Amino acid sequence: MLHLFHLEFILDKLMSSASEVSDINMTVGHPIQVESGGELIPVFFEPEIKSLTAYQTETLALSLLRGNRQLIGTLLDTGACDLSFNMENRARFRVNIFSQQGRYSIVMRKIENYIKSIEELGLPDTVARLSREKNGIILVTGATGTGKTTTLAAILDQINTNMSVHVVTLEDPVEFIHPPKMSTFNQRELGLDFRTFSEGLRSALRQAPKVILVGEMRDRETVEMALSAAETGHLVFSTLHTVDAGTTVNRIIGLFDSDEEKLIRVRLADSLRWVVSQRLLPKVGGGRVAALEIMGSNLIIKDIITNGEEAEKTFYHSIAGLTAMGWQTFDQHILDLYRQKLIQEDVALTYSSKKTIMSRGIDTIKAETGESIYMVKDLSLEDGDEEQAADALPPELSAADPGFQQHAAQQGQHPGQHTQGVKLHSAR
């Protein structure tokens, strides 16, 4: 049976149970699990805990809540709450406790104490430019666990290193602690220092900051306050759970009623400076690598935000055509990762935005490196079809001839498509 005073002992054991532990998962009916390299691994204790009971997860949840009445109230009212948990001088965690089927589950994400720089994270050079903006809104988007908070921490650390300004952060919960450098940071936590992001943001405007971090754009009121802050000369950073730059813009506009849409489009077009969207991809040899879509602001993007996308005037095509400005689509960055042999072909296709474009890009890279793009392998001709196959090819080529692939391309056939009249069967 688990007891309250065992919590830190349990966390110590879990963190040392595998390399690069990123998350801890406690769910009724399962053993305690850690996530390493994107996979859940069960961790067993002595005496052995084959599966957690509802009582055990509730006991652990209460220990993590540490008697905070507001958080307990939020958990009971909404079925979930977020908090931070600090193990003195060892590790910090972002914790989510939630109810499922009347029982509590816990997910704990490890927060690195050390803030990595943009260079250490291997982010594109364009990301460093974000810290030099003077006003407007900068959004970092992506699914949960794609590194949005880590990227924002690196950008804010760049500001902390190079600028003497007042920075107010509104977080849920506070994750990276920014040490005193050139800037002054005041880091406030949802549920502990303020009740909602919109209230915290309204209060922040009276605290004379130059830079404001809003943990997440969760509702219309928060978006309105962020736009007002940007319009009054503040630099506002925030996050959204959206898959790419175009979806981000549409999600914000979709928070407002149709009769407000035109005004919001104009305000957003004037205030939005950058959108950085992130995906984490499985890396060759283990671990994960970040793929980023980066969209800035110019007259074309402002026009699309104001008037909407058209057939030949989309966010995707506008970003793809401005790589000289440091912009890039997911597909362009993923292809670059594939070219560097950091990811496999199937990973590139799975995580791409437009699979047709990605497939053509992969074939181009293969052709440049001399790698075969003939997809059908271990095949033989059915007995009696050799003569028919020979007739399907010009006299100077055979199916085994290296020129076959070039001939197929000239005839408008996909390199992996057999010629008409040739029956291909798996070799046995």
Number of helices: 16
**CATH second-level architecture of the largest domain:** 3-Layer(aba) Sandwich
Globular, elongated, flat, extended or rod-shaped: what is the shape?
globular
Helix vs. strand class: alpha/beta
Q: Under the CATH scheme, which class of the largest domain?
A: Alpha Beta
* Strand order in the largest sheet: 9-8-10-11-7-12-13
Low-confidence stretches: 392-400, 413-428
Calculate the mean pLDDT score and round it.
86
Question: How does the major sheet shape up?
Answer: 7 strands, mixed
Total count of strands: 15
As an assembly, this protein is: single chain
Quick synopsis:
The chain has 428 residues and is of the alpha/beta class. It has three domains: 107 residues, Beta-Lactamase (2-Layer Sandwich), CATH 3.30.450.90; 203 residues, Rossmann fold (3-Layer(aba) Sandwich); 48 residues, no CATH class.
Question: What do these coordinates show?
Answer:
The structure is a single chain. By secondary structure, this protein is α/β, with parallel strands linked by helices. It has a seven-stranded mixed sheet with strand order 9-8-10-11-7-12-13, with helices on both faces. Strands 3-2-1-6-5-4 form a six-stranded antiparallel sheet. A two-stranded antiparallel ribbon has the order 14-15. It folds into three domains: 4-110, Beta-Lactamase; 126-328, 3-Layer(aba) Sandwich (Rossmann fold); 379-426, no CATH class. Helix 6 runs parallel beside helix 7 (220-231), helix 9 packs antiparallel against helix 10 and helix 12 (330-339) runs parallel beside helix 14 (355-369). The chain has helices spanning 7-15, 54-65, 69-78, 126-130, 148-162, 197-204, 220-231, 245-254, 261-271, 299-307, 315-320, 330-339, 345-351, 355-369, 386-392, 403-410; strands at 21-26, 33-36, 39-42, 80-87, 91-100, 103-111, 136-142, 166-171, 184-189, 211-214, 235-240, 272-282, 288-295, 379-381, 424-426. Helices cover 36% and strands 22% of the residues. Residues 392-400 and 413-428 have low confidence and may be disordered.
